[in-house]
Amino acid sequence: MTKAAGKGGRSGARSAGAKTARGKAKPPARKPWGGRFDGATDPAVERFSASIHFDKALARHDLRGSRAQARMLGEVGLIPAKDARALLRGLDQVEAEIERGEFPFDPALEDIHMNIETRLRVLAGPDAAGKLHTGRSRNDQVATDLALFLRDAGLATEHGIHQLRGVLLERAREHVDTLLPGYTHLQRAQPVRLAHQWLAHVEALGRDAGRFADARARIARCPLGAGALAGSTLPLGREQTARELGFEGPTRNSMDTVAARDGALEYLAAAAIAMVHLSRLAEELVLWSTAEFGFVELADAYSTGSSLMPQKKNPDVPELVRGKSGRAIGNLVTLLTVMKGLPLTYNRDMQEDKEPLFDSVTTLRDSLEVMAGALATLEVRRDRMAEAASDPMLLATDLAELLVRKGIPFREAHEVVGKIVGHCTRNRLDLRALTRADLQGFHAAFDAPATELLDLERSVESRSLAGGTARVRVLEALAEAEADVARALARLAPEQRP
Ligand code: ARG
Questions:
Q1: What is residue 40's predicted lDDT score, i.e. its pLDDT?
Q2: Cβ contacts of residue 395 below 8 Å, gap of 6+?
Q3: Measured between alpha carbons, how far is 438 from 405 in angstroms, rounded to an integer?
Q4: Would you say 144 and 223 are in contact if contact means Cβ atoms under 8 Å apart?
Q5: What's the Cα-to-Cα distance from 8 to each of 24, 310, 476, 479, rounded to whole Å?
Q6: Helix (H, G, I), strand (E, B) or coil at 383
Q7: Which amino acid residue places its CA nearest to atom 12 of ligand 1?
């Protein structure tokens, strides 16, 4: 440590080197795996590079990996069976300490891997503990931990998505016959069933769940044994650890194994897209709960008051979901940016993968949970929806299609109905008030008064193509989605997970 750096350092964080030079402080602790070093790490560097405050979230996965490693080392005879047993006992004790909140996490030991290994020295004895890392590097270790974490997180996320879909489906079932305007450009467009609109979100969320499943399928091979980057001269049982940890087999290229973070990127990408979908659903709740729309009212448990305006009931929950989608997008961009210039193989930059990943996992999990609650308790104002849906202008397209059925080219029909709509708007007339004669003034093919031609129910009902708004179609779609969600929830139930 140079004098300049020592002087420039913050008062509370003087460099370890400066301290020893002045002989004031106790000699700095040797680095825990620092055979090649004479000096200790500068405390500022220690704080800067430590990851234990966030990568302790990988503890369970790190323990799983280490158990497989210890068993394998014992079985292939790289370490004596008694050491393997001591290690397994020690790892159990570590786990118990972590569960009880008694594990002595130490930032000087950098990360979760070194924290656990160092604690093992006490619990399993330094001899056995010193053998656990045989043929292993923190590079293949952290890649293994991440793979295990991503598998668990992906399963839990998928489960959360299907639970929300289940809530949307329950609410959709109640509202097969609730009509409201569907919107394009946020302008009233055509009438739809509320069930149809909620089924739209169920579809998008279904694809989201699929993205997590797809991504998981690519986390199929086990990094353990790739070593620092080039494998090992030791006869490690890669097949064995891979199988024990639930992978198809070992990874195929040791360099790719420690250099790759696209598993995390895929999770982040899928999470960003899912959060954007939640954000759009949230935005609808925000909009619909305004006095201007008045289509829904959020339950008290999912809204808050204003500190100043006593009349206010604010949709904070959907607003926060909408806002947090920004983080999920940011997290994806963060890791893409971290990775883009890195030469193979491992670079310490890659430690920056964890905070964005963990943040997206919890942000998405929590957003799914509160959206499910908000929707389950949402009050739907059918009367307000019906009022908005009864706007006769929503049926203008039907009027044009009526002409099409009589052989009039669609472009001409569009023009004719456009003129009718313009006429009504200018003269403040209700479209339905037009008589047969009025209509025939625009086109001779009209053969009935508007009241007979335009009917809200009939309009919704007659759009009966696949994917349409007709009752049968919506009921089919509901049944299909319900079956899909039930299957997924059974498959993903926590007790079903590895
Ligand atoms: N904490 C590190 C990370 O997350 C673990 C791997 C460290 N490897 C190394 N060669 N320093 O990336």
A1: 87
A2: 190, 191, 431, 454, 455, 456, 459
A3: 20
A4: yes
A5: 19, 53, 71, 68
A6: helix
A7: 351
Look-up: residue for tokens 């793979």? 147
Specify the amino acid at residue 385.
Answer: M
Ligand 1 atom with the shortest distance to the CA of 353: 4
pLDDT at 27 over 60: no
Q: Burial of 413 by CB count in 10 Å (0-12 exposed, 13-18 middle, 19+ buried)? A: buried
Instruction: State whether residue 118 is helix, strand or coil.
Output: helix
Determine the residue of 111, 115, 117, 344 to mutate for testing ligand 1's pocket, defined as the one with the most ligand atoms within 8 A of the Cβ atom: 111
- Closest to 446 measured CA to CA, from 458, 434, 457, 455: 434
Q: Which of 44, 13, 11, 15 is nearest to 28 (CA)?
A: 15
Q: How far apart are CA 237 and CA 46, in angstroms?
A: 35
pLDDT of 22 over the 60 cut: no
- Answering whether pTM is above 0.90, one says yes
Helices 59-75 & 112-123 angle (0-180, nearest 10): 60
Task: Give the pairing type, strands 296-297 and 179-184.
Answer: unpaired
- In angstroms, what CA-CA distances link 489 with 194, 198, 296, 424? 24, 19, 28, 52
Q: Which residue intervals of 50-193 are DSSP H helices?
A: 52-55, 59-75, 81-99, 112-123, 126-129, 138-174
User: How far is Cα 265 from Cα 268, in angstroms, rounded to an integer?
Assistant: 5
Give the mean pLDDT of the chain.
93
pLDDT at 6 over 90: no
Structure tokens at 3: 């004098």
Residue among 117, 139, 229, 357 to mutate when testing ligand 1 (max atoms within 8 A of CB)? 139
Cα–Cα separations (whole angstroms), residue 83 to 72, 95, 121, 165, 413: 12, 18, 12, 49, 85
Rounded Cα–Cα distance for residues 277 and 275 (Å): 5
Instruction: Tell me the two tokens of residue 413.
Output: 């029909």
In the chain the domains, ranked by start, together with CATH numbers, are: 53-129 (1.10.275.10), 138-388 (1.20.200.10), 391-461 (1.10.40.30)
185-199 average pLDDT score: 97
CA angle 116, 119, 122 (to 5 degrees): 150
Dihedral sign for Cα atoms in the order 9, 14, 17, 22: positive
Is 306 one of the catalytic residues? yes
| Ligand 1 center–CA 83 separation, angstroms | 26
d(C-alpha 271, C-alpha 287), whole Å: 24
Does residue 239 come out as left (phi exceeding 0), alpha (psi in the -120 to 50 range) or beta?
A: alpha
